[in-house]
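User: Predict the complex.
Assistant: Input components as received:
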Amino acid sequence: MPAVQETIDRVRSIDLDQYKYGFETTIEMEKSEKGISEDVVRFISAKKNEPAWLLEWRLDAYRRWLTMQEPEWARVSYDKVNYNDIYYYAAPKRPAAMSLDEIDPEILKTYEKLGIPLREVEVLEGIAPERRVAVDAVFDSVSVATTFKKELSKAGVIFMPISEAVQEYPELVQKYLGSVVPATDNFFATLNSAVFSDGSFVYIPPGVRCPMELSTYFRINERDTGQFERTLIIADKGSYVSYLEGCTAPKRDDNQLHAAVVELVALDDAEIKYSTVQNWYPGDNDGKGGIYNFVTKRGDCRGARSKISWTQVETGSAITWKYPSCILRGDDSRGEFYSIAVSNGMQQVDSGTKMIHLGKNTTSRIISKGISAGRSQNTYRGLVSAHRKASNARNFTNCDSLLIGDQCGAHTVPYIESKNASAVFEHEATTSKISEDQKFYCQQRGLSEEEATALIVNGFVRDVLQQLPMEFAVEAQKLISISLEGSVG
Amino acid sequence: MADVTNLRSPAEAGLSKLFETARRSFASDTTIAREEAFRFFEATGLPSRRVEAFKYTDLRAAITDVAPPAEAPSLDAARAAVARAVGFDGIEAARLTFVNGHLVRELSDLAAIPDGVRVTPLNEALTNGDVVLAQLAPVPQARENPVYQLNTAFLADGAVISVAAGAKPARPIHLRFVGSGDAPFSTATRVLVQLGEGAEFSLLESHEGPDQLTCQPNDALDVVVGPQAVFRHTRLNKEGDATIALSTLSLKVDTEAQVETVNLVTGAVLSRHQIYVHVAGDDTNVVVNGAAMLRNGQLADSTLLADHAAVGGVGREQFKWIIDGDATGVFQGKIIVRQVAQKTDGKMKSDCLLLTDEGQMMNKPELEIFADDVACGHGATCGAPDPDLLFYLMARGLPRAIAESLLVQAFVGEAVESVTHEGARAALIGEIEAWLRARG
C-alpha cells in the first residue's frame, strides 16, 4: 500500500532543513593534539587523573584497535573517517565547575536553547511537573553539569560523570567497566575504550527504586572532534532505574564521529529501562555533513528475573550503526527492544538488536518500526539466538517498515538461530498478521480496513511511546506520530 | 590496519591443480567461460563462515579433500546403479539418466522425447554451437556465486531442453541423477531448460546415491521461462549419507509466466540448494517451496534470492524443516524489490520443528525493498511440536510416536501439497512417509 497523504505531510514536517538544533556555541576549548596515538591516549587519561590500571586498559585497547579493521557488513556506505584528522578530546577551557553559577554562561545558554533544564530550581518552581529528571550534560568530551546529585545520593543512588566515578568509586568501575562490552568487542567499541572521555555512571543499590528519571544529554559542539562517551549503569539486586539519553549537534558540512559505548548490568530482580531519542544532525538534503553514529549498546541481564528494556526513537545522524542488545544470562530474565527509526534525505540507518538467550525461561520481545523517506536507506538487522541450555526461551519479533516515495529503501535482515527444541521463536514482518481479531473488531464498528489497521498500529506505537518518560515522549511523539499503514515487511 | 588473508586450503590448492589438468580436455569451446569462472573462484576460494552468504554452511571447513572429476561409468555399472534408483520411478516420463554426472544415452529416453520438446546432450549442443546456449547463466547474481562458478569451470556434461512456443507436453521429463562406485569423485552438470511463449512443461529431478559413497556433486539447472509459459519443477534430494551435494537453480521469468518449484531434501550429509529467481517480466507468479527432513549429522541449506525487477510479480516462498538428532537446518531467503517493481506481492516463510534438543535451525529471511507500493512480508518460526496437539492426539489413544509422526506429516505436507503434478506430489508424500517410518 502507498503511504497516505497524512503520513507524507508529517514526514515532510520533520524535514531535514528544519533541524532546530544546528546552532553552534562559541566558547574557548582545550583540545588534545589532532589524531590518535599512545600519547593522545595518555593525555586523555592524565587529564582525567586516572589510576594506572585504567591507563593500561586504554592502551591495551588502543594497541588492539590498531590491528582491527573497520566493519563493512552493514548496509551503509560513507567516506571513511580519517582517524588521524580528528580531535579525540575537546573540553571547555574554564576550570571544572563546582556549581551551576560557575559554568560558562554560553554553555548554560546552549542547554537552555536545547530545552534541557540544568537549573534544578527552575524545574522545582515550574508548574510542578509530575516527574523530575536528573540530568548529566555532556558537552563534547566532558560532563559540564550533573543535577540532583544530592537528592539522589540520599536514596543511595550514584549518578555522576564516569570520570568522577573512577576517582570516587574505583572498585565499582573496575569491576563492571568492559564486563558487558569488552575492550576487544568491535572496531568502534575498542576505539572508544582507548579514548573515551566522559559519560555517565549510575549505580542503584539493592532494593532501591530510583526516585527520579536519570538522563544524559550529549551535545557535540566543537568542529573536527569526535565524541566518545561511555555510559555504565549497574542496577543491583531488586532495584529499578529509568534512564534517558538525548543528543544533538551543530549543522556542519563535514561529518563528525560519535562512537559511544553503553553497558548495562542488571542483577537479580533488577530492571533497567533505557530510552533514547537520537537527534544528531542528519546532514543536509544532499547528504552533506551529519554525524556518523557508530554506537555499541549492550545490556547484561546477569541476575535471575532481571529485565532490560531498550526504547529508541531514531531520527537523526547521517549514518547510524547501532544494535542495542540484551544478553539474557539469568534464568527467567527478560529483554525488550522497541524501536522507531525514521530516515529522510540521504540518511542511512542500519540498526536493530540482538537477543541472546542463555538462561532458562528467558523471554524477549522485539518491535521495530522503520520509516524511510527521501533518498534514505533504512535497515533493520537483528539476531535472536537460543543456546543449548536456554530451555523454554521465547521470542517474538515484529519488524515493519514503511516507504514514502520511490527513491528510498527499506530492508530487513533478521538472523534467527535456535539450538534448543523447547525454545519458541516467532518472527513476522507483516502488519496484517498481528491483529486479525482486533481489525475485525474495528471493522465491525464501521471502520474501513485501512482505518482499522492504522488505528491498531498507531495504538501500538503509542504504547511504545508511553514507555518513554513524559519529557521525551512529547518530543518523540512530534517526530514519529506517523501512521504506519501501508507497511512492507 | 592489518589485512586478514586466508591461506589457501589443501582443497583449494587441489581444485587449482585439477583445473590445470582438466583444462586440456576442455578443448576449444568458448561458449562456456571456464577460465573466467575459475579465476573468479580462485579469487574467492571455498567460501567459509566469514563470507556472509555462507555464514552457516562453511564449505571451506566441510570440503577438506577435493575429489577428482568422475570418469564416465561403464554401461554395466550404470545399469546396476540405475536399478537401485527409485525416485519418481512410478511416473510416466521421458528420462534423462546421469550416472556420476555423465549422461548415459543408453539409459535415457532420447528417442522418446514428447512432441514440442527438443533435448540435446550438452556436449553436442556445444559442438554444434546451438543458439539456445546463449541463454546459459540467465541470472546475473548467480554468476557471483563461487559454487555456481565452480560448476561452470568444471562443467562436464548436461543437456539442453527446449520447449517450443505453445507446446504443452503431457509427459514430464525426468532428470535422474544417480551416483555409484567406491572411490570419491566430484561431478559438475548443467541442464538448460528454455520454454517458449505460452509453453507448459513439467520437469522432475531426482538425486540418489548409496550411503558411504564420498562424492561431491555440483549440479546446476538454468531455466528461462518465456512469456505466458508455465514451468513446474519437482526435485528430490536423496543422496547417500557421505555426499556433499551442491546445487543451483537459476530461473529467469518473463511476462505473465508462472513457475512452481518444490524441493524435498532427505539425503546428503551436507546439502546446499541455491535458488536464484530473476523476475524479468510483469505480472508473473512464482512459487518456491522446500522441505527438509534431517537426521543425525545432516546439514541442509536452502538459500533463495528472489529479485523482482518488473511490475506486479507475485512470489510465494514456503519452507518447512524437520530437524531430528543433531542435524542443522539453514534457511537464507532474500526478496529484492527494485524501484520499478511496483505492486509486487512477495511472501516468504520458513517454519521449523525441532524434534530434539540437539538439533539447530538457522533462519535468515531478508527483505530489500526499493519500491513503495508493494506488499512484502516474511515470517519465520521455530519450536518443538505443540504439546497441546500431541496431547489431543494421545488422548484419543495414539501412541506418542504416531501422534508426533502425524503432526510432522501435516506440517511438512503444506510445502509439498502445492505440487501440481499428481504423481510427483504422491512421490514426495511417499518419501515423507518413508522417512517417518524409518524414524520409528
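Residues 121-130, 430-435, 480-489 of chain A have pLDDT under 50 and may be disordered.
Let me know if you want any component modeled separately.
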